[in-house]
Design a protein that fits this description.
- By secondary structure, the protein is mainly beta.
- 14% of the residues lie in helices and 47% in strands.
- The chain is built from five helices and 17 strands.
- The protein has a 17-stranded mixed beta sheet that branches.
- A hairpin with a 6-residue loop joins strand 10 (205-213) and strand 11 (220-230).
Amino acid sequence: MKKLAIALVALLVMAVVALLVLPSFWDWNGEKGRLAALVKQHTGRGLEIAGDVSLRLLPTPAFSAEQVTLANLEGGSEPVMARLEELRISIALLPLLRGEVLVESVTLVRPDILLEVLEDGRANWVLADAPPADAASPVTPSDSGSSAATQPIRIDSFLIEGGRVRYRDARSGAAETLEGLNAELAAGSLVGPFAATGTAVYRGVPLAFDMNLGRLVDDGATATSLSLELPRAAASASFVGAVSRHQDLQTLRGRLQAEGGDLAQVLAALSLQGASPGGGLLARSFALSAELSASETEAKAESLEITFGPLSLDGRVTADLSGAPAFTASLAASTVDLDALLGPEEQA
């Protein structure tokens, strides 16, 4: 009996080891069609994997796929919304056995992502909802509460290596591109809180950023903060406030602060026409602070304080965004020393 028990235990151990190890040797390329169908079912978008697919369970569950593309929204300016050289996903094993999905890391290698708003107002980053369960679905009302879709998902680290993000708005003609994106993001759940830090190049200008966004809520406010640095110009800016989302209105409120040692350097770094880093009137230290509020129809900068060399201004600026942007400014200075303003700035 003892020998039989030992043999059964040995067989059980071998079976468990086989279940954990064999997936590493399985040719998962044959499952590309099933993966594409699953993504199509839950997002409404076509997925294509031109490279290899692999999956392992030890020492930690990990999935990778090479040369991945996700189709764009029908009617988009390009057929592909996202293109990746490689996708890597690592999941913690013990929480998974408890029914919790803890994603240790998601890595996008050289992603090229297009975000766009079509002329009819549709945004391509809004994916289709998963279809409801029906008679043919394995998920029934009695077990839907335990489905994977309802389980908590936490992402400890979301890495982007050498990425590019493009934004287009067919209604306004706006187009922006963020290149050389290297960033680490974290998410407490699929609805936040979120954090992101990294570097990128915007309009040819290298910058560093650090962003935090609270848990997204409907009909309420979400705390947010953002800091930017322009290393080339030794300047920085920060915003601390909240985003409010309601059914018919979205607003942004908070405090903006910015400072730098040389405004000419900042304007040159931003590649603004006529700006020169070589000196002149603009080669002075500056600081700005304001209480900002913005919606889709208007923007305001109140309690505005601007310091530029020896000049100090305060007031407010408003912008009407309901049509063509129209600006109104009210600024005042108690005194203006033209000799000090036009002369060279004194160094501390």
